[in-house]
Predict the structure of Iron ABC transporter.
Amino acid sequence: MVLVALAASSSGAVQIPLRDMPTLLFGDPAPADALWRNVLIDIRLPRVLFAMVAGAALAISGAAMQALFRNPLAEPGLIGISAGGSLGAVAAIVLTSGGFWVLAPAAFAGSLLATFCAYALGRRVPGMAGLLLAGIAINAVAGAMIGLFTFVANDAQLRDLTFWTMGSLAGAKWSLLAFLGPWVLLMSWWLMRQWRVMNALLLGEREAQHLGYALKRVRAQLVLACALIVGPLVAATGGIGFVGLVVPHLVRMTLGANHRWLLPACVLGGALALTLADWLSRVAVVPAELPIGLVTSLVGGPFFLWLLARGRRHG
């Protein structure tokens, strides 16, 4: 993790030698090195740390969703969290000109509203099938609305829409990190405390009830927790796919399905994975920058196909 963070902090449109980083951070650099210091402290470090925070949040919420649905292909976007946030942000881009401080609340509100609608509709059907079907419907409606807004957007708005919906960490700042960092740590700590109930859910709904868990309350708590941890990230970064799907799989293949160890490992694995993806997005086409969602999709898509092929062979 430390080596990846150092490589990500030193690489980009402006190359910073690793040997000079201690002086830039803690010493008194020469005036000629002032640019490196500003780039490192004001741009690179908050971005690397924010990538770690976002990756950890996406991975642990993906593991929680997979336990909730008892499906290794589940991820936070399954119940409309990401699609609702994207719809809120797209609507803010097309209908207003308020910038990030309008876009972010709109995206967060969209995530919460989509999650509430999915849960309210899904609880009418027993079991998790209702929530799954409601999530599919919410995703379909949100996708149609995003398409409509894209159709009526002008050229400038269309560029913003395209870049935002593909995801980016370019907006990382110390002020944003100061808010989201503690929030993600708090929500991740709460999810890690639920490892027993997640293990019980793997046994089946009836078995979990026999162990004394109130399933309706457990579902509501886990769905709300995932919305509260992913919603702010969608508002800040846009759509970043596959981290919540791929990382829990890799960790589960290595450590097993016990959530006591799976959840903390997902936090570390997600932080590492998204930091690597962001580093690749910055160095692949220097001095330009690829949307990070494009990088995660290029890596996660083939992995997803491999999982399907592997499951078919073992099946």
